[in-house]
Amino acid sequence: MNNRLKSVISAAAIAVGLCFAPVQAADLPHVVILATGGTIAGTGATSTTTVGYTAAKLGVDKMIESVPELQKVAEVRGEQVAQIASESMTNEVWLKLAKRINQLLAQKDVDGIVVTHGTDTIEETAYFLDLVVKSKKPVVVVGSMRPSTAISADGPINLYNAVILAGSKEAVGKGVLVALNDQINAAREVTKSNTSTADTFRTPELGFLGYMQDNKAHFYRMSTRKNTADTEFDVSKLSSLPRVDIVYGYANMDRVAMDADIGAGAQGIVQAGVGDGSVAAQMMPAFRDARQKGVIVVRSSRVGNGIVARNGEANDDKEDFVVSDTLNAQKARILLMLALTKTHDTQAIQRMFYTY
Ligand code: ASP
To answer: Which protein family is it in (predicted)?
Structure first.
């Protein structure tokens, strides 16, 4: 064969190779799925059982196996971090999860993380991770509202989209994301808004960040608050978190629950207050006693939207209280726990509430 013919044949071979080359596994993003349980791993007695099922039954490998499409969009592997319904989530599981995520994201061969989780406390875990993950690589927390055995289960499509999102360039640097029902939310802002419907996750008033559509992430906005690698929190050496409790505001409330919390060792109290975090007249002595003992008092609101105004419904400067800004009580509790690992200074803590 002359040289000219040889080069024509090899050019043709390259062209055929290019046209028919399958997507190489090496080209796919490497995503690790860390499973914690929840309804996404739940099973029910029949395909129409959508309440009264058992959460946290399927192991991570079974979950991955049940969505073979994942193999086309990422190099996926799984680890079981916990197997619980998320109403039973604890600070200890959070610390274990955060440390594992930080180890994995420090590796060159990991591009993103998906955390599978129950939906009841998904917003809390996501916000905790948003404050303590030390990487700009994507972390996506996902769950489902219907168990894996249900007709029209939402777990498989939610998991599929979460893996695409976690492996996407678009999600880099956006903070921890909560993605279900084709919608992408910021951890700081998302909340569960309905006990049972598939569209339960909302970022009320401020709106979600974007959509999952046609195997792609589409972003339209970002949270302005600092997160992940830009925070001052470091859990690498922590084995527990300071106790912080929530006191719910309602007509005719009294100080019994709050005094019990402080008696049990709470270093901080978050009031999920009525309205703009208002403090009932009969509660003010209890809050003052708490401050006398060095317990940090944060005023948040049970309303669900809006800023708790500093020096609005209470003289926070005089009473030495902190306001939660727009954080709901369950997220204010998380930020206060982490703040207390650094300081008991109320001005420093107030700055953190305006930063994260
Ligand atoms: N109770 C369940 C859980 O949070 C609900 C769910 O996952 O949707 O684990």
So the answer is: Belongs to the asparaginase 1 family.
pTM of the model: 0.93
Tokens in use for 180? 């279900």
Q: Is 54 in the active site?
A: no
Residue type, 224: T
Q: Pick the catalytic residue: 50, 116, 119, 125?
A: 119
Q: Give start and end residues of each alpha helix (H) in the chain.
A: 3-20, 60-65, 70-73, 91-105, 122-132, 155-166, 256-263, 284-292, 316-319, 329-340, 346-355
Query: Is the CB of 120 within 6 Å of ligand 1?
Result: yes
Residues 225 and 297 in one domain: no
Do 103 and 43 have their domain in common?
yes
Write the CB contacts of 184 (distance below 8 Å, at least 6 apart in sequence): 165, 171, 177, 178, 208, 209, 210, 211, 212, 217, 219
Question: In this structure, what DSSP letter does residue 24 have?
Answer: P
Q: Do 83 and 213 sit in the same domain of this protein? A: yes
Q: Is the CB of 38 under 6 A from ligand 1?
A: yes
Residue 211 included in any domain: yes
SS3 321: coil
Which residues does residue 43 pair with via DSSP β-bridges, in sequence order? Answer: 54
Q: What is the pLDDT of residues 227-247, one digit of tens each?
A: 999 999 999 999 999 999 999
CATH of the domain at 281: 3.40.50.40
Residues 96 and 221 in one domain: yes
In this structure, the residue with its CA closest to atom 3 of ligand 1 is 118
Catalytic residue, from 39, 149, 191, 203: name it.
39
Tell me what pLDDT residue 231 has.
98
